[in-house]
Amino acid sequence: MAGLSIWHVLIFLIVVILLFGTSKLKNLGKDVGGAVKDFRKSIQEDEKNLPENKKDQSKL
Where would you find the membrane-spanning parts of this chain (predicted)? Predict the structure, then answer.
């Protein structure tokens, strides 16, 4: 009883779509995806800028 069934999830999604509309949800998805992409890119750039001796120490 405490868990979520598929019906609870479907009802929740229907309510969210009715409240926000599909266009707002699409824009929100694009914004979140762009933020995640930028975050991953910045992490990769930071790892490239680390000196070699710090990379070796982090493996220990």
Answer: 6-22
Could you give the CA distance from residue 11 to residue 36 in angstroms, rounded to a whole number?
A: 28
Residue 19 near residue 11 (C-beta atoms within 8 A): no
The residue ranges of every structural domain in the chain are: 21-59
The C-alpha angle 10, 34, 15, rounded to 5 degrees, equals 20
24: Cβ contacts below 8 Å, ≥ 6 apart: none
- pTM of structure: 0.52
Q: Which has the closest alpha carbon to 41: 53, 49, 51, 29?
A: 49
Q: Distance between CA 57 and CA 60 in Å, rounded? A: 5
